[in-house]
Amino acid sequence: MNYETQVMLEVSFEADEFYPQAAVLGSHAAEALENKHRSQLTGLENIAESTSKTSDIMDYIKKQTARFSHWRHTLASEENTQQGFGERLRAYLENDLAQRRDAVCARLQIGDSSYQDKQKRRRIHLLLIRQFIRSMVVEYEYAVSAGKNERKER
Amino acid sequence: MPTHTQLQKIWLLSDTVLYSEAVAFMRRLVRDQGCNPLPAAQVNGLFSIAESQLYDKLYAFVVHQRDRDWQPSKRDIKTFYTALEETLTNMQKRLRSDFHLLGGSRKPGGQDEADEQELMALLAREFIQHLLAENGLLSIRAEEERQQRQRNQQAGRYQQQTGLAHHSPHRKTGGRYGN
């Protein structure tokens, strides 16, 4: 199996593993951003898909969190009541997905000292972030439309 | 014009070195040294210079802001630009030694210097973007803390005025009312 196929398989495997967390954050996004701020999540998705740097995504989240109160919306019903949506998302992408990247790299025997290996690690982190955001946005769309339908039925 | 290989190196540096250094830079100033985050007008000015200008113009802007005679209430801005100037000077030294973006020793004038300026503009832009993003977060946290303090003070005053402090549930369960 060639390298690219191995990477795609590993990323897909991790995507299955982190799907529940993506769904949790998608629901958080639905409560925080509601239907009216959809474009901000589309903006995040566009940046994630087009950038070559993970730090661009973190910067975008920080800027949105600083600029809009709905990005700082906390969920009263969950354990983690202190973290707003933006901070929670950034922490997950920056820390948890970095751990998953390390696990993928270990399985693919990618080190962290040579220049080539560092580039590979960075790309895998970016692929994981893209996949996470895709899943999160799907859940957001579902939650938002389910909420809309619920209101219609009432 | 930077080569594709140089750009890839810059992207890697941005993610693995400059991002964490920018976060540490801002936190050191705000949390450790007690400075206020950079105000919005400064953020906009620095951002537009970093986005549009050549490195020598950016550096001149940073030095100019550092050397301005700031009024006492804005001394934190001077502290910020002093630290930023030091970081940029240091970054220029690291261009060859740490970052390996240019080979050989520095030759003044000509293509060598032009390449160095272009690469420094890109690196500085990355660093400043990360700085300003972190600055925004720290600003909002500082504002939230200020509001929380205000709410606590108001609640304290209200309790004193209404005498609720003497009838709090905590006091009822302890001391002479206890167990």
Question: What is the element layout, followed by pairings?
Answer:
The complex is a heterodimer of chains A (154) and B (179).
Chain A lengths: L2 H31 L4 H13 L3 H14 L17 H23 L7 H39 L1
Helix pairs in contact in A: 1-4, 1-5, 2-3, 2-5, 3-4, 4-5
Chain B lengths: L3 H29 L7 H13 L2 H13 L7 H23 L12 H53 L6 H5 L6
Written overview of the protein:
The complex is a heterodimer of chains A (154) and B (179). The mean pLDDT of chain A is 93. Helices cover 78% and strands 0% of the residues of chain A. The longest helix of chain A has 39 residues, at 115-153. Chain A has one domain. Chain A has 5 helices and no strands. With 154 residues, chain A is mostly helical. In chain A, 38% of the residues are buried. Chain A has helices at residues 3-33, 38-50, 54-67, 85-107, 115-153. In chain A, helix 1 runs antiparallel to helix 4 (85-107). With 179 residues, chain B is mainly α. Chain B has one domain (4-177). The model of chain B is unreliable at 171-179 (pLDDT under 50). Classes of the chains: A mainly alpha (154), B mainly alpha (179). The A-B interface holds A 52-55, 58-60, 62-63, 65-67, 72, 115, 118-119, 122, 125 and B 8-9, 11-12, 14-16, 18-19, 126, 129-130, 133-134, 136-137, 139-140.
- Give the class of chain B from helix and strand content and strand pairing: mainly alpha
**Assembly classification:** heterodimer
Q: Helical proportion of chain B? A: over 70%
Span between termini of chain A = 54 Å
Q: SS-based structural class of chain A?
A: mainly alpha
Round the mean pLDDT of chain A to the nearest integer and report it. Answer: 93
What about the largest sheet of chain A?
A: none
Q: Care to count the β-strands of chain B?
A: 0
Count of DSSP-assigned helices of chain A: 5
Q: State the distance separating the first and last CA atoms of chain B.
A: 79 Å
Percentage of residues assigned to helices of chain A: over 70%
* Beta-strand share of residues of chain B: under 5%
Largest binding interface between chains: A-B, 18 and 18 residues
Radius of gyration of chain B using CA atoms only: 24 Å
How much of the sequence lies in strands of chain A comes to: under 5%
Q: Work out the count of structural domains of chain A.
A: 1
Radius of gyration of chain A: 17 Å
Order of helices and strands of chain B: HHHHHH
